[in-house]
Input
Amino acid sequence: MAECLLTINQSRHMMKTTDSLDQQARQAAQSYMGEFAWPTVVLGVTVFIAYISTVILVAQGQFPAWLGVLLVIPLTYASYTVLHEAAHGSISGSHQSLRWLNELMGYLAGWVMMVPLTAHRHEHLAHHRNTNNPESDPDYHFAGMWRSPWQPIVATVRSLINQYRYYFTHRWQQGPRSQNVRLCLEVLCQLVPRLAFVAQGYWVEGAALFLVGGLGGVLLTMYLFAYLVHTPHEAEGRYLDTSTIIIPGRLGRVLTLAWGFQNYHSIHHLFPRVPFYRYCQVFDEIEDVMNAKGAPIYQLGSSGYGRYGTDKLRNL
Output
């Protein structure tokens, strides 16, 4: 009986310690939430203009189609950062008067990527609620993304279809009619200009930019946003279901920026309202908590890829 009481007391103590650590992390992250994320707006506007410009330059023959594809792929990837932030309301933050700008940036980014904000928001939030759950995580199919040479393409196409499938299954009948109208308008705005472009005789250019470039950009996004940071797609639960991948040195800063800070995707899953460009700062403040919680933290460097050591890399 005494041993049982001791075990119970120890369990309670561990729970209190765990709650205290989580509260400590929340307090640290809180200072980075609620701001108006103007860098995300700048990114979104830049990507949208660059995408439109690329299509025009290819159509005018000033850019070859293959160069257009090479530009559309990273632009599509960058557009998802904006769409992703808009889905969480992280652009307007606590400034409700700027909510319209949050939605506008999401619509523009979704237009580039051909993923409607209205549908993606519901699918993506379900991923957050059920990360790595084989039965209820709508992104879980990415776990088998590299099982065969064709699987990446299948997973990419499936990810686009899933945006609509999840919405029509879980929201079409339950949500307000105005929301369904917005979804339909988004789809029309995405398809009509592209079909008109092709109808003008730009069949090759359209196939290159919208199919090869677009799907290539989605594939890159799914690999860096959905697959790599959740590998091995087994752990469930707060602090455990998403990895941090640290890349040291000056090259690490460049790669982190090119990755859109998503090598710190764990911070996003812990605190979705923190803007993406603040992930490194939050990690720096709560690293000890994450280690205590058993969070998967890895290091990618010249010597290979493995578990992150106990000594903090100050030069990140």
The first strand starts at residue 244 and ends at 246. Residues 38-230 form one domain. The chain has two domains: 38-230, 237-316.
